Amino acid sequence: MKKFTRLSTAMSILLSLCLPFCPAAVGIVAASDAPPLIPMEDFFRNPESARYRISPDGKNLAYLKPWENRLNIYVRDIESGEERRISSSTERDIGDFFWKGEKRIIFSQDLGGDENFHIFMAMITGGEILELTPFSGVKSRLVDDLEENPRHMLISMNRDNPEVFDVYRADVETGELELVERNPGDILGWLTDHDGQLRVAYQAIGTDTNILYRASESEPFKTLVRTDFKDIFDPLFFSFDNKNLYVASNIASDKAAIYEYDPEKGETIRLIYDNPEVDVENLLSSKKRKVITGVAYTTDKSHYHFFDDDRKKLQDAIEAMFPGWELAVVGMDDEEKRVIFATFSDRSLGAYYLYDRETEKLDKLADRAPWLKEKQLASMMPIKYKARDGLTIHAYLTLPNAASLDVPLVVIPHGGPSSRDTWGYDPEVQFLANRGAAVLQPNFRGSTGYGKVFWQAGFKQWGRDMQNDITDGVEYLTGLGIADKNRIAIYGGSYGGYAALAGATFTPDLYACAVDYVGISNIFTMYESFPPYWRPLLAREYEMIGDPVADKELLEEISPIFHIDRIKIPLFIAHGANDPRVKKSESDQIVEAVRKSGREVVYMLKENEGHGFRNEENRFDFYREMENFFRKHLGLR
User: Fold this and answer.
1) Which one, out of 3, 178, 196, 372, has a CA that is 20 to 30 A from the CA of 81?
2) How does residue 405 score in pLDDT terms, banded at 50, 70 and 90?
3) Are 519 and 434 in a shared domain?
4) Are residues 550 and 585 in the same domain?
5) Number of CB atoms found within 10 A of residue 388's CB
6) What was the pLDDT predicted at 6?
7) Contact predicate 252/258, CB 8 Å
8) Are 381 and 363 part of one and the same domain?
9) Is residue 195 in some structural domain?
């Protein structure tokens, strides 16, 4: 009777959340129906191929595909099917790339996770690769690929001053660099118009942001809008006549919305789109037809709103082909006739397709992970619960297939913390669910996307109300009987790693174990080790987290390193030696302190990684150790 009572409680709560409920819907089915134990490597191996991009003329595809255990760039002729590899990276995966004209590919790569990205050019016919930014210890960024200029693009680098980025015009044929704009020392970023002219700059002055504007490159920048950093005024791109700006702003409201803004008059022309539930910051457009076409935003799942019939017709056409799947257009040729789109769900990495809008021909390009079977994976459910002070917290819950109640629970706070979790396929979540654990992903206060009031509710709340939101989510699930209160773990990366350490430190009786992945243990040393190009943002960090002088007692209170005596549970800590964001000293110091206290801690350090493990073999090592750790302390299958 006890089990049926708990099931009834869980049912009533899930129904109150407007979630469809049946035993199979939440994974409560007979143990004999348990899915097979899927090899750990199948969740974390490189995809069969990924990130398809179509050439401007619509004749070739570029994509990433493993070679020598590293993701490299391949090009395929659409008509003939001929495939050729144009990069030969053996030390590190190539992360992203784009077409530069019809014969060149531009890509970036760092060294061992140091995030000092170098920019390279490769011809699709093969041959020697040209490094455009051959400077040690320098970080390079794309400013504008200058689509209409086949020979040049704009990049920024901190070559002359590690704290700031100057803008250069790069010749993709010769590698020659020409200085275009010297950073006066406080510019965080730049925006060009459709002619590739630098017209907008983002200036940081303490906790204020100045949006600078000029009518042409021959004129000096002038302040267009000045805001406190807590307000958003984010120029997205120029109108197609280069006169007005499309901006995302929450100055007039709690939620960010899309507006058209006249920079010459300094006034808003019109509201384009807003949503009462969440921020809207992503505006879609057609380069060929020179119109804005819609917006994308995320509530519980991703959504589109179109105000262009042609773009809506395209979305309707591809969604009709794949009912029940989420679909995203990821590229088109210049004529917008050939379209690449991706399918995905919470239980599948999905596939890439090529769709010809004129002939209505559909070609499947690749499954990203054909070795994973959707029916064997678990469903992710959007849920919400009340924090102890009454604030509504949105979250995602994944229950293992073939589970009874009282299952092990792993709570995974996201990184940032100024970010959010979203619905969709997550290899970590599916890996843990396959091992028999429920997974909770809370969007605690301080998460972005839910408006500035919710975001600012997290200010100076590290280890306090932000942590309470995580704790309250765990207690919500144990109260329903879904989670076994004696088998709960907390795991996260970056800020999530801090939250894992904070959970082990400040609520040691709640968790059986904790995993910290590239996380923070000491906020004082975190500040001291920021990369130089983050230093202009320190005043903002002090306001969001705490000032090391004015808020010294607060930072001591919330830094786990000062409370080692409270840690009672086993820890697994992992870090990359070259991490520029959270230095490995954050892990070194707490590992040393915990070991001196006689507590159990497993420490994994990878010498060729940074803020997260990119190389496949390092991912395998990390998740293999995590599996052993959770099997020992949570009793996972």
Assistant:
1) 372
2) confident
3) yes
4) yes
5) 11
6) 31
7) no
8) no
9) no
Residues 352 and 483 in one domain: no
Backbone angles phi, psi at 492, to 5 degrees: -165, 165
The pairing of strands 438-443 and 407-411 is: parallel
Compute CA 278 distance to the chain's CA centroid, rounded to the nearest angstrom. 17
Q: 65 in a domain, yes or no? A: no
Domain count, the chain: 2
Nearest to 427 by CA among 485, 382, 368, 474: 368
Residues 406, 542: one domain?
yes
Q: Which domain holds residue 342?
A: 308-367
DSSP for residue 348? B
Q: Which residue has the tokens 């396959």?
A: 434
Order of strands, edge to edge, in the sheet holding 198-205?
Answer: 187-192, 198-205, 208-213, 222-228
What average pLDDT does this structure show over 372-378? 96
Which amino acid, 149? N
pLDDT for 583-611, tens place per residue?
999 999 999 999 999 999 999 999 999 99
Task: Give residue 188's pLDDT.
Answer: 95
The pLDDT tens digits of the residues spanning 219-254 come to 999 999 999 999 999 999 999 999 999 999 999 999
Instruction: Confirm whether 331 is domain-assigned.
Output: yes
| pLDDT (0 to 100) of residue 34 | 77
Coil, strand or helix at 441: strand
Within 164-256, strands assigned E span: 166-171, 177-181, 187-192, 198-205, 208-213, 222-228, 233-238, 245-249
What digits encode the pLDDT tens for the residues 299-338?
A: 999 999 999 999 999 999 999 999 999 999 999 999 999 9
Residues 566 and 440 in one domain: yes
> 471, 526, 473: which is closest to 502 by C-alpha?
471
- Same domain assignment for residues 413 and 340: no
For 378, list phi and psi in degrees, rounded to 5: -105, 155
